[in-house]
Amino acid sequence: MPTINESHAKSLALYGITLKNETKVSAILQLKDQIVDSKMSRALYEKLISAIDYHILHDIKLPDITFGIEFEFVGSEDPYDISMFDIEMFRLLKEKYFRSGVYTHNDGTSWILGKDGSINVNNSSIKEPFGYELSSPKLNLFNEDDIKTITTVIEYCKKYLHAEVNKSCGTHIHIGFKHKNIFRGSICDLLSAYSVMEKTVFDPIVPTSRRRNKYCHPTRPWPRNKYQKLSSRFCEFSYDGECNNLHFEFRQLEGTLDLQTILYWAELQTYVLYDLLDHIDNMQYVKNIMKMNIFDILFNYNFDSSFINFFIDRIIKFKSRSIQSV
């Protein structure tokens, strides 16, 4: 069993992480910019040290990434609140916003506020609670103007609709990019790899309620000889569109109105997805990625310390058994 030594301490310090011995089964971990100490099990500590010490950094150059968001939340149904929200959204977005009284499919050109009957509005602090889904148009993941727009929209949801989330809410992230020479067989291989990684990479950084539920089933890749859509409507990971213009939807993230959480989640998914796809014909490379746990992934790419600290904090918070048992 490894101990916290000088070499480990120096490696951790590069990411703003400090550790100290507590008991034989756990350690105290202090994350960068955090005031409260977090207890880390010995199993997690060993995997953290292993990830830092033994993995080579891969500097991946991503193409232009488009992304979209579907926010699920509980909000006010009071006519005055809704009208104030509509007014501010029209001022901000002009014709790129409209409100629908029912669930409406978004074609990627507008912000749409619709109804979501899957959301539990019981025990809400809002006087007249209502289940909403707010979907965005196609945006750019690294465009500052798009990020500012999302920030303002979230502020309006909180200010005028008094938006809040609960366990029945989810946040769906859409990622799109172009990639040459990708065939359906490659997409099947990609889905197979991702389906394995859901348990050890992505389940440990989401609440238990998002690991398995009615609207967020595990990924199940179709056999190679199938030519219909490669996964069902309620999968965490789905494929749509032409093979050279890819679009994936991730449903695993919990309901949130925190933009940083959404951006970090989208970035993590994008790096893993693109790395797998870019090496899909190199089975040994793909197998090596598939064997990684969430710690390995965090230290496998050129992520900054704030990004890494954010997800380490979630690993500790959600206490997934899968990451401790791999």
Brief rundown of the structure:
With about 325 residues, this protein is α+β, with helices and mostly antiparallel strands.
Primary descriptors:
single chain; 326 residues; alpha+beta; globular
Please describe what this structure looks like.
The protein is of the alpha+beta class. It has a domain at about 70-170. It has helices spanning about 5-15, 40-55, 80-95, 145-160, 185-200, 260-280, 285-290, 295-300, 305-320, 320-325; strands at about 20, 25-30, 40, 65-75, 95-100, 110-115, 130-135, 140, 170-180, 235-240, 245-255. Strands 4, 5, 6, 7, 8, 9, 10 and 11 form an eight-stranded mixed beta sheet that branches. The protein has a three-stranded antiparallel beta sheet with strand order 1-2-3. A hairpin with a 4-residue loop joins β1 (about 20) and β2 (about 25-30). α3 packs antiparallel against α4 and α5 packs parallel to α7 (about 285-290). It is globular, with a radius of gyration of 21 Å.
